[in-house]
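The methods section describes the discrete structure representation at length, but only in general terms. What matters is that the chain and its backbone geometry are given together, residue for residue. For illustration, here is how one protein appears when written out as sequence plus structure tokens:
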Amino acid sequence: MKIWKYGDDINTDMLFPGKYTYTCSTAAEIKPHLLEDLDPSFASQVEAGDIILAGKNFGCGSSREQPALGLKSVGVQAVIAESFARIFFRAAINQGLLLIECPEAVRSYQAEQTFELNLEKSEIQIGAKSYKFPTLPKEILAIRTAGGLMEFTREKLKQKKTS
């Protein structure tokens, strides 16, 4: 697992350049352009299970699905930030991308420190220190487990038909 750490106000154009909005819609088309203007090494080096740490207002900017879809499709385990832009927050939930607000953990993390995310305990362990974050709502966790809102809804409809 690798930790990718960025600053404040990482907008959706930094996550996925707007110039590709109408030419890239699948995960495979989106991946090569993820963070290309912010961190050109990201798309080629990110691996499933990696975590992004960021400052305030992560995901600000225009409303597009590609940034959240792209991060989810490359297997980013979670984005942990000081705060999120509301429109990105909703798009991430729809895609099943895990978002956690934990400013203290973000501010304290230094490169190469050990890092462990424990959802059951709502805790992040960095080195010898632990940081609590608010327990995530069961509905958001269920959407994440299902793989996104569409899959969650399909499963609910299936259950309704069989009951």
Notes: The mean pLDDT is 95. Residues 149-162 form the longest helix (14 residues). The beta strands are 3-5, 51-54, 78-81, 99-101, 115-118, 123-126, 129-132. The first strand starts at residue 3 and ends at 5.
